[in-house]
């Protein structure tokens, strides 16, 4: 339909395309730079002018996963041959690897708390969303608004009593405490998004199943859940991304055992100053999964970030 | 699932026999219970604490009931007014810039050039990432001399890259946080505006074209009013989020230098978890919550009016 009067002209398209691509490149540059810095050596990362081309090195990643001490050349000479490339790399810098760093643990905490809270919010959220979508519930709109309004409180404001509550219940700095907390924060998103998805499934499917002798519960499990699978999956990813990125509660309520990666990564320091390649390596490992999820989610992105208010 | 779990007969029959009403309550109750326990109970506790002089770091000290004293002190505290001004400055500028950039991008993408989906997805990436981790890395970009940001600015303007520090200077720090927030969240406004632009049916423009309305007139009488409800929704979301803003700015500036970037949440954190004035900060938390809730309710009313028009 090139004859349509509302179709932009090809010159318009070229100009618009060029501007958007230019913006995209500028906006992506900081992210590319983080990934590049992860493969730089310490001196390369802070050189002037900033280095675009450099000899790639795994030093940042080695530093991220290990803790090291400085050793004199004499000490190094007495050691047996390096066991692996990481050892070798550290010794080239006059260091000995003394053990693993805390990054692995913190990353694992992020995984456990992220997946735990996502599972729980999806489980509870699907049940509630189904009920809100299909049944008459007194004060339904008020309840739904109440669920949404819990999202308006600044996390720090809620953190004061939660800090006190967790201290007396022994939930401070535990995985369970963080999972429950993130579930409570995420459940508003889960209920609102999933209600939207379930609203879109025609009621006739369940009614047919009910006539066929299914109970209401069976109809929910066997008819509605499979139909809602895509919606449930994308809601789950949104919950996971929130829990993965959350910082305010994590930094106030965890310090060791259950600390997640976001409060930990900024505290990575090297010997004599900030070890930017190690920070960049940690950031890359931490951010990359989310970038991949974002690309997978692109069709549902709008819906997720607006709590289902805008559907394409 | 009922096939795979060998439930005993009576239980199965009981599940089968559940009425719709009991299923409804069974399904909703856990969610409501969790929210009551982790959201409403703490909120009530905060309100209670706000009338006391409780200090969380001295739990054994006797707590005194001080009535409205905390509220009176907050409303007369120059620090709090400074915090509110910093927050307002941050809110106004981030929203203005994000609306401008977001709408422009959406409008350009809606020219439907080839490959626009791919570029849209790339532009969206920053807003999905952890603000704390990304904010921390921006302190590296903002370093004088070696920082990427300073280098790019000096490359285009000729200013010496070591002559300014974005996060160390009183005049530049408020802009340093606005720049990063705008970088992260303009795509959010863009996505919502894009949905608005795509919801305008072609025939409206065709009719305007037949009436010989100029492109400029079409833009102001069709495009803008039709996108406005979407844009207002985007502003609502950004407003609430940035009013609560904590992680990104804590990592970038920590509220400094001095208290030039001390947003409400950062001030609250200092009062509550560094000075341990629990009662006082609870009162501030209540004030903040009432403010967000009140402003959001008024705004939603306005939004609904625009939608119905």
From TrEMBL, chain A:
<dbReference type="Pfam" id="PF00528">
    <property type="entry name" value="BPD_transp_1"/>
</dbReference>
<dbReference type="GO" id="GO:0005886">
    <property type="term" value="C:plasma membrane"/>
</dbReference>
<dbReference type="GO" id="GO:0055085">
    <property type="term" value="P:transmembrane transport"/>
</dbReference>
<feature type="transmembrane region" description="Helical">
    <location>
        <begin position="107"/>
        <end position="131"/>
    </location>
</feature>
<feature type="transmembrane region" description="Helical">
    <location>
        <begin position="276"/>
        <end position="297"/>
    </location>
</feature>
<feature type="transmembrane region" description="Helical">
    <location>
        <begin position="178"/>
        <end position="198"/>
    </location>
</feature>
<feature type="domain" description="ABC transmembrane type-1">
    <location>
        <begin position="107"/>
        <end position="297"/>
    </location>
</feature>
<feature type="transmembrane region" description="Helical">
    <location>
        <begin position="20"/>
        <end position="39"/>
    </location>
</feature>
<protein>
    <submittedName>
        <fullName>Carbohydrate ABC transporter permease</fullName>
    </submittedName>
</protein>
<keyword id="KW-0813">Transport</keyword>
<comment type="similarity">
    <text>Belongs to the binding-protein-dependent transport system permease family.</text>
</comment>
<feature type="transmembrane region" description="Helical">
    <location>
        <begin position="143"/>
        <end position="166"/>
    </location>
</feature>
<keyword id="KW-0472">Membrane</keyword>
<keyword id="KW-1133">Transmembrane helix</keyword>
<keyword id="KW-0812">Transmembrane</keyword>
<keyword id="KW-1003">Cell membrane</keyword>
<dbReference type="InterPro" id="IPR000515">
    <property type="entry name" value="MetI-like"/>
</dbReference>
<dbReference type="InterPro" id="IPR050901">
    <property type="entry name" value="BP-dep_ABC_trans_perm"/>
</dbReference>
<dbReference type="InterPro" id="IPR035906">
    <property type="entry name" value="MetI-like_sf"/>
</dbReference>
<feature type="transmembrane region" description="Helical">
    <location>
        <begin position="219"/>
        <end position="244"/>
    </location>
</feature>
UniProtKB/TrEMBL annotation, chain B:
<feature type="transmembrane region" description="Helical">
    <location>
        <begin position="90"/>
        <end position="109"/>
    </location>
</feature>
<protein>
    <submittedName>
        <fullName>Sugar ABC transporter permease</fullName>
    </submittedName>
</protein>
<dbReference type="GO" id="GO:0005886">
    <property type="term" value="C:plasma membrane"/>
</dbReference>
<feature type="transmembrane region" description="Helical">
    <location>
        <begin position="172"/>
        <end position="197"/>
    </location>
</feature>
<keyword id="KW-0812">Transmembrane</keyword>
<dbReference type="InterPro" id="IPR000515">
    <property type="entry name" value="MetI-like"/>
</dbReference>
<feature type="transmembrane region" description="Helical">
    <location>
        <begin position="280"/>
        <end position="300"/>
    </location>
</feature>
<keyword id="KW-0472">Membrane</keyword>
<keyword id="KW-0813">Transport</keyword>
<dbReference type="GO" id="GO:0055085">
    <property type="term" value="P:transmembrane transport"/>
</dbReference>
<dbReference type="InterPro" id="IPR035906">
    <property type="entry name" value="MetI-like_sf"/>
</dbReference>
<feature type="transmembrane region" description="Helical">
    <location>
        <begin position="121"/>
        <end position="141"/>
    </location>
</feature>
<feature type="transmembrane region" description="Helical">
    <location>
        <begin position="23"/>
        <end position="45"/>
    </location>
</feature>
<dbReference type="InterPro" id="IPR052730">
    <property type="entry name" value="Sugar_ABC_transporter"/>
</dbReference>
<keyword id="KW-1133">Transmembrane helix</keyword>
<feature type="transmembrane region" description="Helical">
    <location>
        <begin position="218"/>
        <end position="240"/>
    </location>
</feature>
<feature type="domain" description="ABC transmembrane type-1">
    <location>
        <begin position="84"/>
        <end position="299"/>
    </location>
</feature>
<comment type="similarity">
    <text>Belongs to the binding-protein-dependent transport system permease family.</text>
</comment>
<dbReference type="Pfam" id="PF00528">
    <property type="entry name" value="BPD_transp_1"/>
</dbReference>
